[in-house]
Amino acid sequence: MAPFNAEDLLNTETSEAGSTEVVLIPPRIYAAMLDHFGKSKQLKDEDGTPEPRAIYDMYWKVIDSTGEVKAVTNQDTNFVKQALWLDLTEEGGFDWGTNKNTQLSRLREQFGQNQAGKPWGLRQLLGNTAGIDVRHVADKNRAGVIYAQVYAVGNVPREDVGEPVTRRGGKASTEGADA
Fold it and tell me: Would 174 disulfide with which of 48, 106, 145, 163, CB 3.0-4.6 Å?
């Protein structure tokens, strides 16, 4: 591929029409690797005062050893976003109190990282592999806009049958956000 040249691109004309629709990864269970973190933001109340909660966007890279997903999306690499809700202390650290950071704790447990007394940081989640339950979700503010999102995380499925995510107590291991 030729190097990007901003000036050349500004002077380039086309007679092609571009697509306005995104072809989504089909909804099902996939093996995936937690690849990177995206945007993060701290929540604020109606007055703009920061709340002790934050959201990190995490991106899972679908393991597509059969080429099935690429055949649908025409992309060599396919990512699916998951919102990670975090409860924070007044000092800005993780809040490990009752009903706090359960979604994060489930992820840590999934990867064998939820151990008291052992140093741990958010970046240690990166590079780990799990089964992700991908679902299509409608945008609440824009009619007709649909996203593919991670609904739950569990054991890696057998790729040939797409086995379901392991469930604990009737719920997926990292289903949904913290209450």
Answer: 106
